[in-house]
């Protein structure tokens, strides 16, 4: 069972959100928030393809969001499976499909996941498939839901209603561009993805202006992608990179400025696409078959528990809770044939990696495979970040490491060193994935949440300034897919997935009664 509360106060020091203005080595980096406009689109259209991608995220992070007075947590849910999902028909913003029986069951599972929630308000798309999902999750609450047309699915104009093979046959090159270059896709005189990003930005203005601290938003695949991307300052080139499955749950934490000013809030992606079913189940990524995958496993809780800090955690082994988390993670990964497990030399990481390996090798005895599995185990020193994080000041290292946005407390020197070392670790993981002798390969990397956040940044081709925009918990998994191989662009299937931990999972929400600081 999962429940969702607004966040604890995000640990932000003088760096505030590192997605703001940075002076680094006497250079100015501007990476604050922004909305789309016609002038932006015209500027983008004048650039080359590479320049467009670079410019897009800079521009979509250029105008601040509305200020807030108190911490706010926003939970995004995609609708359950619809009849047109089942048929493989292009839906867009059309309103002719309804939930299938499977979709209704998915929505009910999401309701159970969020049954102990403390939501103040629910925003919903007006389209039937989304509104019905919201009604199931919202249940018997007395507060009326708010429907917002800006939360409708992406407008796909002449594509809407076509089966995918019909779209390919009828529109040829345009359909191909929709598949491979959606950010610049043009149909009927419109740029649908650019329009969507502008709509998502408008939605945030309304959601943040609402006097609520815990918000449920039920909408669609593409618009939820746009909401996540615009919240953390990513442009249209990230369409289809941050996946949203049917009834997948994503969580964003917003915190007011520490100086009490009217500037943009601090924003952290707490989790992405926590689904009712297993996140490692076989399937496709944005419609493409998956043959290469990296699974980032954060080591279990260490001795000292949640009160441990970076300065005293040292090289502690896992606690009993950490051992349970490792066993639950190994059980989840039993559905996959893991090729290689790499880990930090840190005790807790080695313990967790060993547990996963032993369960994999016993797959035949456990009935998960017909033959024993052979798993290669390695230790990579670049995954060990203990010494790097000690470079920061006392105020940062005395903070419990798994509060949302915890990396924002660290000084530039430590974060730059973390980013540089994580780049080497990332290249090592890609090298592991590049084994040409295996058509399918799954690499599990076990490390500290801090290094995994940096690795996700490399996967998304970001800079170190974005590291404070992500969060991971002990025992969580994050799944990175490479549908075009390790030399291609990675997609994020999920971030900070903890549902597999059962009763020991990290709650999405909790009651806000008598909880002044969240």
From TrEMBL:
Main location group: plastid
Superkingdom: Eukaryota
Entry annotated with the keyword Transit peptide: yes
Active site: 79 (tele-phosphohistidine intermediate), 153 (proton donor/acceptor)
Enzyme Commission identifier(s): 3.1.3.63
InterPro entries listed in its UniProt record: His_Pase_superF_clade-1, His_PPase_superfam, PG/BPGM_mutase_AS, PGM_Phosphatase
Annotated localization: Plastid, Chloroplast stroma
Keywords on record: Chloroplast, Hydrolase, Plastid, Transit peptide
Similarity remark: Belongs to the phosphoglycerate mutase family.
Protein known as: 2-carboxy-D-arabinitol-1-phosphatase
Organism taxonomic ancestry: Eukaryota, Viridiplantae, Streptophyta, Embryophyta, Tracheophyta
């Amino acid at each position: 069972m999962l429940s969702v509360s607004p966040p604890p106060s995000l640990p932000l020091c003088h760096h505030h959100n590192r997605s703001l203005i940075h002076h680094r080595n006497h250079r100015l980096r501007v990476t604050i928030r922004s909305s789309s406009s016609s002038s932006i689109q015209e500027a983008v259209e004048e650039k080359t393809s590479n320049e467009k991608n670079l410019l897009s995220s800079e521009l979509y992070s250029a105008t601040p969001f509305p200020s807030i007075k108190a911490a706010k947590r926003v939970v995004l849910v995609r609708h359950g499976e619809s009849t047109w999902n089942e048929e493989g028909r292009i839906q867009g913003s059309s309103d002719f499909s309804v939930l299938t029986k499977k979709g209704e069951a998915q929505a009910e599972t999401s309701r159970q996941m969020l049954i102990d929630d403390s939501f103040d308000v629910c925003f919903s798309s007006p389209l039937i498939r989304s509104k019905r999902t919201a009604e199931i999750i919202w249940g018997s609450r007395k507060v009326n839901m708010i429907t917002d047309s800006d939360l409708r699915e992406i407008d796909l104009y002449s594509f809407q209603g076509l089966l995918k093979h019909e779209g390919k046959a009828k529109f040829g090159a345009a359909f191909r561009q929709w598949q491979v270059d959606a950010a610049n896709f043009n149909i009927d005189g419109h740029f649908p993805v650019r329009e969507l990003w502008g709509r998502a930005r408008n939605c945030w203005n309304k959601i943040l202006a609402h006097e609520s601290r815990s918000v449920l938003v039920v909408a669609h695949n593409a618009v939820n992608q746009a909401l996540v991307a615009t919240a953390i300052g990513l442009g249209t080139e990230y369409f289809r990179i941050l996946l949203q499955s049917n009834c997948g749950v994503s969580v964003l934490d917003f915190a007011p400025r520490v100086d009490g000013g009217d500037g943009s809030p601090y924003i952290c992606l707490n989790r992405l696409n926590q689904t009712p079913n297993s996140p490692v189940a076989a399937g496709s990524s944005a419609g493409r078959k998956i043959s290469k995958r990296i699974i980032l496993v954060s080591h279990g809780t260490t001795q000292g528990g949640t009160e441990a800090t970076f300065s005293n955690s040292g090289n502690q082994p896992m606690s009993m809770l950490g051992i349970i988390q490792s066993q639950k993670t190994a059980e989840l990964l039993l559905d996959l044939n893991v090729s290689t497990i790499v880990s930090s030399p840190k005790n807790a990481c080695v313990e967790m990696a060993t547990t996963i390996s032993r369960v994999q090798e016993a797959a035949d005895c456990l009935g998960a495979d017909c033959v024993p599995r052979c798993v290669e185990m390695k230790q990579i020193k670049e995954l060990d970040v203990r010494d790097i994080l000690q470079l920061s000041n006392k105020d940062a290292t005395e903070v419990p490491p798994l509060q949302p946005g915890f990396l924002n407390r660290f000084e530039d020197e430590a974060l730059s060193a973390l980013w540089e070392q994580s780049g080497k670790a990332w290249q090592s993981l890609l090298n592991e994935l590049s084994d040409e002798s295996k058509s399918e390969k799954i690499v599990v990397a076990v490390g500290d949440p801090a290094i995994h956040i940096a690795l996700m940044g490399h996967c998304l081709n970001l800079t170190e300034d974005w590291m404070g925009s992500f969060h991971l918990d002990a025992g969580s998994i994050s799944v990175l897919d490479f549908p075009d191989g390790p030399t291609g662009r990675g997609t994020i299937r999920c971030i900070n997935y903890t549902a597999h931990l059962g009763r020991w999972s990290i709650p999405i929400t909790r009651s806000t009664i008598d909880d002044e600081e969240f």
